[in-house]
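User: We ran a pulldown and think these components assemble together. Before we commit to crystallization trials, I'd like a predicted model of the whole complex to look at. Sequences follow.
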Amino acid sequence: MEEISTPGWFRPEWTRPAIIGGIVLVALVLVGISDVALVAVVVGGLQTGSIYALVALGLALVYKSTRVLNFAQGELGTVPAWVVFLILTGGALPDGGVDSAGLGEMLLATLAAVVVGAVLAVLINLLVIQRLSDVRPVTTLVATVGVTLAFSAVELIVFEAKARTFPRFVEGAPPGIDLGIGCLAIGGEGGCAAAGSQLAIGGARITWHMIIIVAVLIGMAVLLAAFFRTPPGVALLATSQEPYAAELYGISVTKMSTIAWAFAGAFAALGGVLGAGVFQRISPGLITTTFLVPAIVAAVLGGITSMVGAVVGGLLLGIAVSLANGIVASYGLSSVLPGPPQLATMAVLLAVLLFRPRGLFGKEA
Amino acid sequence: MAPILSAEDVSIRFGGLQALDSVSFEVNENEIVGLIGPNGAGKTTFFNCLTGFYRPDTGDVFIRGERATDLRPDQRTHLGVGRSFQQVGLVRSFTVLENLMVAQHQKIHYSIAAGMSGLPWTFEEEKEVRERAFAVLDYMELTHLAHEPLGGLSYGMLKQVEVAAVIATDPDILMLDEPLAGLGPEESEEFGERLLQMRRDLKITIVLIEHHVPFVLRVCDYIYVLNFGKLLAEGKPEAVRTNSDVAEAYMGEGAKSLA
Amino acid sequence: MAVQTDADAPTVDGHTPEERDPRVPWRPSQAGYVARGIVWAIIIAFVIAIPHLVPDTQINIVSRAALYGIVALSMNVLLGYAGQVSLGHQAFFGIGAFGSGYIITEVGMGWIAGIIGATIIGGLFSLLLGAIALRVRGFYFAIVTIAFGLFTQEVIFNIRRLTGGGAGMPAERPEFFSGDIVYAYVCIAALVVVWLFDWRLTATKAGRAIEALRDDERVAASWGINVKGFMLLAFAISGAMAGLAGGLFASIEQVVSPVTFNFTLGLLFMLMTVVGGLRSRPGVVTGGIVFAALPFLLEAAHGLSWWPGFIGPLWEPLIGAVLLLLTLIFFPGGIAQQNEDLYRWLSFQPFHSDKKDSVGGVVDTSGQRP
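Assistant: Here's a predicted model for the assembly, 994 residues in total across the polymer chains.
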């Protein structure tokens, strides 16, 4: 197995003080910032975080069942998003894209996309991963990088290197009142006023799309939790822990890995359709370049084999990224310190790997 | 004269398991010392403490009377400790000759930078490294295998190549972890002769872990017996052979003597 | 091996291994020397002629191909020799490019200083990543390299003061190299120097130590190799090579722009090295050159009458990806595996080898056990 160890100079008994110290430090920094609307940051972070979590959920499930870190998880989101796009345009490739679509039409297209995502994932597992001469995690990672490149290359050939608009399930925002919670918390007078007639929490405007994303994440988490209580779900868990013993009980390891990859593909597809909706645009390799690396980091943060961990890790990372954006913007640092999301992602990744390599919910080292 | 290798009250714990409990041990120059004990007695763990792969929780390791407890394995190699591994310790993607060349790492005088820059004297020394590798192969009668990749060699062959590689590091203390594994009775016999010969020719000290008790009784000058991480007995082969504690540990209650 | 034997070469040189003394290194016969000499002369003449053979507008591709060759050697040190996956190698390439641009333009120290600086900065940054690699192993480390690549791309390369932002950082060549053809020779010469350096690396103790610790860290340590030290050395060497290539790259177009060093470039670097064939110098360099030239070859082929018209330069990533998957599934040795006998013959060894090494995994990290 991969070995990670904490640095020699770091003693386990320091973990708790270090975490508490870190939180206090962050809190102090935040108190010093009058312009960072904390609630707005959290609300914004939950939106991207939910998509990280959806993609991470698939990553964790696949890693748990086949010990493969699936780099192609991002493309399993982008390709289905293109499927939705093509269904909505009836196969045409308008330069502008699709500005909006009816809810029913969108739901049907997404259903097709989810099927495509699941089928593609299963095919990757059967045609590439299972055929590799060498199954060490690093080699399988490189193989899935190859799959990613192949998918995005085909997209590039078909759709060319341009962005097109992509619709959301429901455009716009629910009407409503300012709940006003966050305005009391930290500053942000402008935030409340600016929200106007739109539903807002703590100055953060809420769109229908945000609500849908969070709802889908909750729905999928519940679905997965329910699945793990059915006989095939239990078999899947058993296989991931004791593959040889499971085989002795007549459980097919290949079948179980197929189920896991199918779920992962379906989650990625939902993440792709919703993620393209966040940007309201789509371009070749979109999800790989935007959500994949944070999702991998989220999965590592959650402990890579833990489903709960993937969700919590995704949401936490989303908030961290949103916080980094908020701090840099409010300090007016954006010209000095570009790329706060990447900065936050890298920092979280290193912090986890160096100080708690098992992640938040990981059982194995 | 101080012992060439010694350990004082070495203890190490892995989680709930006390793998070694206050083990002391001394090896004098040019001795052949055996370390025996039932499976799981902590023999390899003790080897790892002596060679620097584990750091004991308490206790110390001394090489020629100098405290070596905090030294890394490669630093101990520099002080003349050479060891083999229970699973063959060789570089699998190299040929036999290449393995013996890497093993001479510490014997090479040119600097890393000089080597990479291709300075003339590094070519000369590389030739010497190659010659020394062949000298060791000749001594071990393995010259015919020089250009073989390891993939095609039998387990017994690999074990011998491994010993050759350790010899190539030019050790003063040769530590062998189950050197007879994979060897037949005749080959074991031959290997015993070879050990005695190596001690004479190379003026080295040998410490070995071995399950094959008659072999240890025959070859070694002094024997330590480990059981459940504790030193059960020590002494000359005859004393250990007739020690009833040792016999019981190996063969169950009531046994009076080994072999 | 599917490769057909050159009629005279092996038989003229032929000795069967049994009758040879293993101590005496194998030497070709006189005819063998002459045959190899002729082939080498042709290769060298071809390399020297190349900058004059390509159209003037495409001359920079030659420079780029030579530099990709250096990057491939750099990747090979990490991935092939040390067994550490880097999916963010474009970072060192970019750091070298901006480092040299900064030294030339902002510090005003001249081109040579820029190139030396790029090499050093590349090595130092890589050392930093190496320090992480000592703690974080296997695919976790691969994740770190991906994140590191994105981090440099989005954060470091966008710091206006260091990199000139979107407009880019100028990196002018000195007068002597101002001609594109001359500069192509500079890049080719750099590739030759790095190649020779890499050859001596693997033929001396440092390279052997690095490869030994890739296979088994415990064994390496027991033979007196300082595992951490040599792991860091591998990173420093790899980063320095990539930095050098980046520094030279900066002066091809004489301006460096942040968008060049993206994530996909890092994946391309990994891909060309694996497809080229890890641990084989001619293999990885061939991989680098092929992938540097591929888009332009595809473009050129586009004009040919028999070429299927729909296959254009956009197909380059797809071809690369498919080759990578084929390599991983069917030919772990990549291009080098296909040309093994030829490469051996050219290095003054017999064409045929009776020693078939068992081909291990593409990415060998077996040495890293707990």
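Chain C has a mean pLDDT of 86. That may be worth checking against your pulldown data before setting up trials.

User: Thanks, that helps.
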